[in-house]
Every structure is written in structure tokens, then in C-alpha cells.
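User: Predict the complex with magnesium ion.
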Amino acid sequence: MLLYVQPVPQSDCHHRVPPPRLIAHLDMDAFYASVELLRYPELRGLPVVIGGGRRHQPVQRSDGTLEYFRLRDYTGRGVLTTSTYEARALGVFSAMGTMKAALLAPDAILLPVDFDEYRRYSRLFKAAVREIAPQVEDRGIDEIYVDLSEIPGVFDDAGTAIGRQLKGAVHAATGLTCSIGITPNKLLSKLASELDKPNGLTLLSVDDIPTRIWPLAARKVNGIGPKASEKLASFGLHTVGDIAAADPAWLVEHFGRSYGAWLHEASHGRDEREVVTFSEPKSISRETTFDRDLHAKRDRAELGSIFTELCVQLAGDLTRKGYASKTIGIKLRFDDFKIVTRDLTLPAHTMDAKVIRRAAGECLKRVDLARRLRLLGVRAGALASLAELVAPQTAYEPTVPSAPPRVREPTQPTHNASLPLFDSEHPHE
Ligand code: TTP
Ligand code: MG
Ligand code: MG
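Assistant: Here is the predicted structure with magnesium ion placed in the model:
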């Protein structure tokens, strides 16, 4: 029996009453696509998808107008990163295979991805928010949580004025719209920011949970993935409200102590997680899916140069972000989609492309490469910030550290494709 009536608490006087909070979740609307539309404003209102490579760059005609690449002309194995709302109306969404999207929206315009540009706009909108409300938790390229609780007067209107101000500041800094949810916690705000997308501002209190949150599909809750929602559905629980109505002991019995208890709490909109304003990345990686599957022996030169390029890019990422790595790993996906990873720990932290390349080559030697490869990735883990490595405790030791830091300077990016694939004294044959 799944119906459950919440018992009236006997006494709440032993429970700590947490101070009231107001947390915003801000997510940019159709982010990559919207950044592209700033460049090509004539495409506004049209179905546009982002996912192409360099060959899909618009070309200028002799009369100065641009000729765009249409989805119907696409062949390849790419996937879309995102689509405009007009393309979504045709059934085309993030992570969809581009060929499949072409069947649904043959006239949609395909534009190549330009991550550098999206990162630039990401920094711009986050900086604009921090000017107004500094308690920001970075949740990836197009979203953040913001703790608004300390902002004077914020509780007077449940965050309405500050919500409008944030949207205005983001628009002024970037020309882009975003959607914001403002509620007492992160879980509810994440759900709320989606309720009125695009260009939404949604304020919810706990009193709104039955009407606004319980009708939502369980899958919408951050933390209920495809597996859990499938299992919930197998018991007839489809919406958040279905979970809220279930007996918590029953949830624990079927979903385990911690996840079952969490499901109960989450479905009632309870979440005490703090907004975490800073976190060090755990790893940085680069990977690429090949246009065609490559074989370690027959396509050795091509694979070798892609491998080197990935290491050079990874070294560049580390340098830009100010980290050095002590654990280098590789990831391979074979033509049967099986994934293999290997890693190794270095004697010292590095951000040097050559050192990374050599370590990654060592990892590769430990993999059976009989099958053809679909994807290759290189990962830098066990990161330390350069500030940490070069000047530990500078605040207390104003003198220059006597021992030189054990960080190698990054080499200039080289596109040297002549490095052998495995850097081995005993080449694989
Ligand atoms: P999302 O915020 O999930 O999507 P979105 O901003 O495009 O659209 P929405 O208005 O619904 O928020 O993702 C942010 C960006 O991340 C998106 O523009 C492209 C990228 N992305 C991918 O590359 N692959 C994916 O599968 C998803 C979901 C997003
Ligand atoms: Mg978004
Ligand atoms: Mg997002």
C-alpha cells in the first residue's frame, strides 16, 4: 500500500530550526544557441541547432549575405549540444544525434560549436551576478546557485526585486536571457528555474510544493536519474507527489536506507545543502570522437597525432586554469562501445604537454588494442593549484621558498605529429 499520511510530529522542540534562506538557481536559456544568435541575429526566430564542426561555418556569398548549413545536408556521427526553442518545437533537443535531428528538422540551420565563445559569455554572466550577490556556486557553464539570504530586505518580497535585478544585469552584460528560480533551498530552486523557461522568474515557498512541485515527473528532480525513475515507475510512482505520498519506510525498504530517506525528503521539498562558493576541480580532461573508427596499428600515424594534440590541449587547459597534475589517465572507447581507462601517477606535478604525452603513452601500452577505436581521451587528475605549489603559505612566509617548486613550465603548444604512438623503445607490432 503506497498511500501514506504524514504523522503529526510529536514535538519539534528538539529540532534545530534552520534560519530562513532564499536561494536562487539561475540557468541561461538555450545557452550555446543564444550566444550564436548574438553573432547571427538574422537567425532569430528560426530553428537553429549547435553541433557542427568547422565545415559547417556559414560562408559569405558574393553579395555579402551569409549562406548557412542546413541539417538536411549533414552526414556524420555528431550529436547536438543544444537547439533553439523553435527547433525544440520540432522535437530536436540536446544530445540528439545530428543525423536523427536532420530527419525531424531538415531545414533547421546547423552551426559549429565554439566553446571559447561560450566560456567567455559564461564568465561574463557570472561576473555580472557576483556584482550584485557574491555568494555564487558555480554549477557549470550556464548555471549557478546564488545564496540571497544576506541581501538586505530580500525576504520582504520573497526575492522578486533581486530576481528582476539579476536578470537585468545578466542581460546588460551579455545580451542574453536566463531563467531564475528563487525558493528556500537548492533543490526547489533548481526545479523552479525550469518552470517558466525561457526568460522566467519563478518564486516558490514551501506552501507551493503541493501545487507546483508534486505534479512534476519524478525524473525532474536533480538526483532521480533514469534508473531510479524507471524503478519508481515500476511501482507506479511517476510524479514527485507519488513519492511524497509513499510510506518512507517502504521507500527505504525498496531504495535503501540513504537513498530511500533522501527520496522522502526531496519529494517534500526539503534540502539543507549549503551554497558552496568555491570548489577546486578534481580533474580536467579532453577527449575526441573520431570521424571514423581508427586502428592502433593501421591508423597509427593519425591516432598518434590526435593523441599528441589532445595532450597539448590538456596542457593548455591546465596552464590557463592554473593547475598542475600528478595523475595522468586515458580513456578509450572501442567500436563495440566498451570503455577502458588507465592511469598512472607521476613523481611530480606537471602541466607540460610532453610529460603528459609520455605518461598517457605509458597508459596506452597497458591496453589491448586489437579492436578499432571510436574515442580517445586524456585526463589530468590529482590537481594542485599553482598558487599551492609555487608559494605554499605565502601569507606566513614572505620570503621566497628556498627549494624551487617542483613544477615544470608548460612547453609551447607543438603540433608535432611525429611522436610515436606509444613512445616505446619496443614498438608494438
Ligand atoms: P542546458 O542548460 O541544459 O540547456 P540550454 O541552456 O541549451 O537550454 P535551456 O534553456 O533548457 O536551459 O545546457 C547548457 C549548455 O550545455 C547547452 O546550451 C549546451 C550544453 N549541453 C551539451 O553540450 N550537451 C547536452 O547534452 C546538454 C544538456 C547541454
Ligand atoms: Mg540552460
Ligand atoms: Mg544548464
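Residues 27-28, 31, 142 surround magnesium ion (ligand 2) (CB under 6 Å).
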